[in-house]
Design a protein that fits this description.
The protein is an alpha+beta fold. The protein has a single domain (6-441), classed as 3-Layer(aba) Sandwich (Beta-lactamase). Helices cover 26% and strands 11% of the residues. The chain has helices spanning 30-42, 94-104, 150-165, 179-183, 191-195, 215-221, 228-233, 249-263, 265-268, 271-280, 305-316, 331-335, 433-441, and strands at residues 119-126, 129-135, 145-146, 286-287, 301-303, 320-321, 324-325, 361-362, 383-387, 391-396, 401-407, 412-413, 423-424. A six-stranded antiparallel beta sheet has the order 2-1-11-10-9-8, with helices on both faces. A hairpin with a 2-residue loop joins β6 (320-321) and β7. α1 crosses α8. The longest helix is centred in the middle third of the chain and has 16 residues, at 150-165. 53% of the residues are buried.
Length: 460
């Protein structure tokens, strides 16, 4: 499928020279040929990658099995655009949807003080149909908006496409593919460790609160911005790989650097579009690269709310789109499994509501440690991509529903852990995930929260 250069050209951020954003597609690169030779030599298919690099320690990951939810076979694929319906036609309460939108788009502040809910876009998909949509502040259905860490969940899927092609395996150590990892002392980290943010790499994910000591600020904006993956690889290890979960934009960016090395620069330049975006119709997608050519999968995906919902549809369909498998069998199940290292990690007030899968968030909790599910109003099978300043894609498999909210919040309600020092006590006057989800679930007749499988009445 042809694509004009403007679809690939990133907004002008100071770390991404325009010359790096104009490379065209190519045929087989050296990286691809290397991957294929290795694949043939090992006698593997893309689906058999799970035990390819198995060792005694750590336990190898095997991709197998369907997701725990009913896999949706789309009646009408939204590649060219979403079919539409009214909320009532899919069994949702129109009055409750109106109340939800009133909350999301309330203005309790202005663009100077940046208080209150600052929703830029809201899209709701039910039973494969667009049933609610609203924009503010000049944004529209065709606007590609910055997603911040929602990018990480899309990066997971791009890597999944590469695993399906047999280019790399979850159990590969990154030192097999990326020499700077060996030089930096992190070569023993596996691909799965990066996906599950359990690399053990010495990393500080603080932001404006501690910019001097922040690894992520250094990676994105100062000493690491010229070659972000190499910067992460140079950090060394603070823990054995796979033993401790720690939220890290560095893990995601290093993973994209590994993929770039495998693909080669020429094929890497178009890979997210060839492998994923074009195939599911994410026509607004823009993904920034650093000065070295590595996609900044941790932070710099831009896309419209409608296109982001297509990612949710792909996962609901277990990685199959229009009858073609894009992700390996077992990838969605793996993605939605809690990172094993999470159970060994001491939680803080700022991380107690993090239920990490592989670059996504889950709604499981940890009963053994009396940690409740983070979203009590939502079904237990809910999962989400989440980003800074109130950006999210919530997926509700048992309801066949996807909700995309792109915000620009600077003050949150006080029920969001980690923000107790600068929060709004009234959840009606600032964005709250739980208040948002509660209002959304109120639109589903008979829906109840964690521990049940709610069914929306009246849907197909």
């Amino acid at each position: 499928m042809a694509r004009t250069p403007s679809r690939r050209r990133a907004p002008r951020l100071f770390f991404a020279p325009r010359s790096l954003l104009s490379a065209g597609r190519s045929g087989l690169s050296v990286g691809l040929l290397t991957g294929l030779v290795g694949l043939v030599g090992l006698g593997l298919s893309s689906g058999g990658c799970g035990s390819a690099a198995a060792t005694e320690e750590p336990t190898p990951v095997v991709l197998e099995g369907a997701p725990s939810f009913e896999v949706r076979t789309a009646r009408e694929w939204p590649t060219a655009g979403w079919p539409s319906a009214t909320p009532a036609e899919v069994g949702l309460d129109p009055a409750a949807i109106a109340t939800l939108e009133d909350y999301l788009f309330a203005r309790n502040g202005d663009d100077v003080d940046r208080r209150g809910q600052r929703t830029n876009a809201f899209v709701l998909i039910k039973d494969g149909k667009l049933v609610a949509e609203r924009y503010a502040r000049g944004y529209s259905a065709d606007t590609a908006m910055l997603t911040w860490s929602v990018s990480k969940s899309i990066a997971n899927t791009i890597v999944g496409c590469a695993v399906h092609e047999g280019l790399l395996c979850l159990n590969d150590t990154i030192g097999q593919h990326y020499p700077p990892a060996v030089d930096g002392g992190v070569g023993s980290v596996r691909v799965t460790d990066l996906l599950q943010m359990s690399s053990g790499i010495d990393w500080s994910e603080t932001y404006e609160t501690s910019p001097v000591f922040s690894s992520v600020m250094g990676m994105l904006y100062t000493r690491g911005r010229a070659d972000m993956a190499a910067f992460v690889a140079s950090r060394g290890l603070a823990a054995d790989p796979g033993t401790r979960w720690s939220y890290s934009s560095g893990d995601t960016t290093l993973l994209m650097g590994v993929l770039r090395t495998i693909l080669g620069d020429e094929r890497n330049a178009d890979y997210p579009w060839v492998a994923l975006f074009d195939r599911i119709g994410m026509k607004t997608a823009v993904l920034e690269r650093d000065a070295a050519g590595t996609f900044v999968g941790s932070s710099y995906l831009y896309a419209s709310a409608r296109d982001l919902a297509k990612w949710g549809m792909l996962l609901l369909a277990d990685g199959v789109w229009e009858g073609e498998r894009l992700l390996p069998e077992g990838w969605v199940r793996y993605t939605l499994t809690m990172a094993p290292a999470y159970y060994n990690t001491e939680l803080t007030p700022g991380t107690v509501d993090d239920n990490p899968g592989a670059q996504v968030y889950l709604n499981h909790g940890d009963p053994a440690r009396d940690v409740p599910p983070p979203w009590p109003a939502a079904p237990a099978d809910t999962f989400a991509a989440q980003g800074h300043w109130g950006k999210s894609i919530f997926v509700f498999p048992s309801l066949d529903m996807i909700a995309v909210r792109l915000g620009d919040d600077r003050i949150y309600a006080c029920d969001i852990p980690g923000h107790d020092d600068k929060c709004e006590p009234d959840p009606a006057k600032a964005y709250s995930k739980n208040h948002y989800l509660g209002l959304l679930m109120a639109a589903v007749p008979g829906a109840v929260g964690v521990g049940t499988t709610p069914v929306a009445k009246g849907g197909e």
